[in-house]
Amino acid sequence: MARTMAVQVTHMSTELLQLIWLASPALPVGGFSYSEALEAAIDHEHVHDESSCANWLADQLHLSQSRGDMALMAQAIPAWQALNKARLKDLSAWVHATRETQEMRLQTEQMGRSLLDWLRIQNKATTEALALCSQLRPTYPIAMSLALSLANAPLENALQAYAFGWAENMTQAALKAVPLGQISGQKILARLAQEIPEAVQHAMALSDEDRQAFCPMLAVMSARHETQYSRLFRS
């Protein structure tokens, strides 16, 4: 009995550590280079302080991430676990079709390639899964779904880890670009963390027909960022 419990605890600890690792800003995928149009929102004065920044990012969490990439990942993670090639090809095509600006496409492709390289080094994914991911012209949501599928954690926990990693990266971008102090950053991150469980539940409930990437203001700000005269970030 004691040995069985020890094995279960070890397994759970391994899952948790893998999720923490994937949520870490130290993951070598270049996420720190991108603000996902936040920098343009600052330039056009939609974001100018702690409150407006928290509102912008919370809206992006619920209107863009939850309804789009997170909803896709909720379907892609089990597809990777079953190695459902046809399903993964359809999901990958959806990601490529929903990047509305050049910089958004470049971001998801660059981060996807970098994460795939990291997965090869980790030597945990099968050769077949790695080859399929490469053939799909890897995007970040698809490659991250593969990485999360290898943790064998509950789907809800996997999506929470992804969402927190996104929130932390966006908060760090806000600290540099608004700019904000560390305390303001922690307040923003605390709000996003509080809202992540709801966003995850919403993402898990969406079907293919309900999943969407309709977020006009985000697309407009991204397009404007492409020609912004002075900028820190690549998106």
Provide key terms for this protein.
235 residues; mainly alpha; Urease accessory protein UreF; 0% strand
Structure, explained:
The chain has 10 helices and no strands. The longest helix is centred in the first third of the chain and has 33 residues, at 50-82. With 235 residues, it is mostly helical. It has one domain: Urease accessory protein UreF (Orthogonal Bundle). Helix 1 packs parallel to helix 8. It is globular, with a radius of gyration of 18 Å.
Could you outline the blueprint of secondary structure elements for this entry?
Blueprint: H1 2-23, H2 38-43, H3 50-82, H4 85-97, H5 102-122, H6 127-135, H7 140-150, H8 155-177, H9 182-205, H10 216-225
Task: Give the overall average pLDDT.
Answer: 93
Largest sheet composition: none
* Residue fraction in strands: under 5%
CATH topology (level 3) name: Urease accessory protein UreF
| CATH class label | Mainly Alpha
Q: Total domains, how many?
A: 1
In short, what is this structure?
This protein has 235 residues and is mainly α.
